[in-house]
């Protein structure tokens, strides 16, 4: 361990002895906000196995990590209302399996001048000696976005219930030329071969988004590098940047500090309401990140995204127990603010996803962590089932409002595919123009989820196949929300993206996690992901139905379908939480 880092760790324990980090009054006031949702009203849109707060507003995931066999999840939280507010803190939950969760007292909330107005997003880094450190954005007394440091008060507590803050916060303030409210969300730190720690912080200069690079030898004193690690023109502020290595030719994850010739690096940034990423090569001695094929984060329809639906402010971490990188993201509500106030809560998290680089090296693959399979019940399956043009087949035997469904389609006569040059087409616009009711040749075909018996309400997740004039095929994946509800004041924007597969040699597969008001869809084994929020008018579980459909003019075959009802995960409030449950 380096001498500077040893000095930092000694300071940690000194501050723990002399500084609680939270005033007693503030602690009591904040902690009394963890309570269960209003049980006196119907809650048809609360989920069964997706993480959400017991009540009130939630947005960005913060500082996920594994510590002493316990998974920790922190999140942006308004302790007083189901809407975004003037005070945002870090709420906290723990799990042994990423499925079942225990809600704890909030972990980090305003107590210093450096975060007195709010404690905004940040990341966890595990320092030598297995010591978690949280770098996060504070809104200080001048409403500046500054970067602060906190760590656990009691390292022997695997739940890490209490946190203390560095007495010299803020450690980083907005650089010259950056607006006070455009500098936030420090990343997980990585340590180069030179022993120096590095982080990126999101921001912009003159609306040009960038990931500012900072270096430190002791994790306290940070110096900004001359050039940002990555930037783009006219994107606005970059939020929640993430930077991490992915090993080639492997589905494993690796620690953020691993540096070798057999890895690529991923730069992710959030802007325009989406999480964009690019894959490239990182050189720590030159502090240079070079995107492959010259692709940068521009926000065009051709750029790569984690998810092409409602999925934002994501945060990943390395799970060293299972050698995987795990990804979380905020899935916002798309009903009205009045609806959220009535429900008493707002915001979901995506189900945790394992993440790795595709064997082609061109994109990332995402897939629900394997622990989700413990919730499966009552499997129903189909094999080699033909779907004639215009057919709709109901899947019986499962709870359609809370399900996990995998299906693979085989196409026979590709030469009949519609002719369209998809190189210059926005796939989302194409999905809106040619929805599930717009008949093509090969497609639309897929699932009708959270559907009413009469199909008046339905969410269609489907594929269409096109060919260009040179015989090259493109596969479009859509989530059509245009008929997802008959309610008003609901955002029913459809989503879409192309899937990088060749239907001449590969079957077209789809997996859907259906959970009341959320559907997470994974095309081609996780190459393309779309998350949607839905609010059908019917409110009883038994009113939900699931169908497979083919609205194309050509027959297709279901080569394999497996569907399960899903048990509800356990979400409990820790017995030590001082709340009025």
TrEMBL record:
Alphabetic keyword roster: Glycosidase, Hydrolase, Signal
Annotated ranges, domain Glycosyl hydrolase family 32 N-terminal: 50-368
Chain ranges of the Glycosyl hydrolase family 32 C-terminal domain: 371-565
Pfam families assigned: Glyco_hydro_32C, Glyco_hydro_32N
GO terms (BP aspect): carbohydrate metabolic process
Keyword hit for Signal: yes
InterPro entries per UniProt: ConA-like_dom_sf, Fructan_Metab_Enzymes, Glyco_hydro_32, Glyco_hydro_32_AS, Glyco_hydro_32_C, Glyco_hydro_32_N, Glyco_hydro_beta-prop_sf
Domain of life the protein comes from: Eukaryota
Coiled coil (UniProt feature): none
Signal sequence coordinates: 1-25
GO molecular function terms attached to this record: hydrolase activity, hydrolyzing O-glycosyl compounds
Annotated family: Belongs to the glycosyl hydrolase 32 family.
Protein name per the record: 1-FEH
Organism: Taraxacum brevicorniculatum
Source taxonomy: Eukaryota, Viridiplantae, Streptophyta, Embryophyta, Tracheophyta
Record gene name: 1-FEH
